[in-house]
């Protein structure tokens, strides 16, 4: 008589396969639901901001429970914001120019200075290199509000020194002051990101360039920087976003429209007498466009730069 074979019954295998298929489909559906919830959570405020920007003021302050889309959309909020004939339009254009000049200047200076400093930390025998890198991270972790008083003291003393020596130049309430202040807390972040990426570039490539007659600066220019293009682009974008969105320092160190930035302008649209919700929404939407456009345009470099710098080769 033949002994029964070991193992599960033949009909058990299809049942097990069906359970695995059901489990895989359940996980897939759960993943789609989670992604959909994240997308809705992310886009809902932006959508609400845009709908408010194209809504008349009367619609925003009316009893509109259950009504989100304005019956009569208008672009007047945007046209008034750009019009030089109104006080709001003049201040908006000035704030937009200030934010652009300050952010681009901070990005350029931080990228140039940060590249050399990061390369030195990554390649040269810098004493206490790990302590320096840790210090850069710790300083960046400090909240901006914690730096306001030290910055205010330094700026006040510099202005007092300049006035005491008969100079008409001052730092307070100037774009130059904002550029210096932003650099002081963004530069460390730039150095930290770039030095991590430079360490992933094989040193043998620089040695080969040195054998071919390149100096260390030439190797940096012709070998390291071309290979680090994604990291440089990602770091420049992050530095620009940090400078563009900064609010606390601009609030403390500016007092006139000639030096106010865009986040400060949006905050000042609300007064103690009336809050122009439609103008705030329009200005906020326009202020959010440059970072979003830059992030979408250079997202390939952004992802490649950050992920490559985080992987040790």
TrEMBL record:
UniProt KW keywords: Cell membrane, Membrane, Transmembrane, Transmembrane helix, Transport
Stretches that traverse the bilayer: 29-51, 101-121, 133-158, 178-198, 219-244, 280-298
Record Gene3D superfamilies: MetI-like
SUPFAM superfamilies given in the database record: MetI-like (SSF161098)
GO biological process terms, semicolon-separated: transmembrane transport
Membrane topology (UniProt): Multi-pass membrane protein
Ranges for domain ABC transmembrane type-1: 96-298
InterPro entries: BP-dep_ABC_trans_perm, MetI-like, MetI-like_sf
PANTHER family linked to this entry: INNER MEMBRANE ABC TRANSPORTER PERMEASE PROTEIN YCJP, MALTOSE TRANSPORT SYSTEM PERMEASE-RELATED
Family: Belongs to the binding-protein-dependent transport system permease family.
Name assigned to this protein: ABC transporter permease
Organism of derivation: Limnochorda pilosa
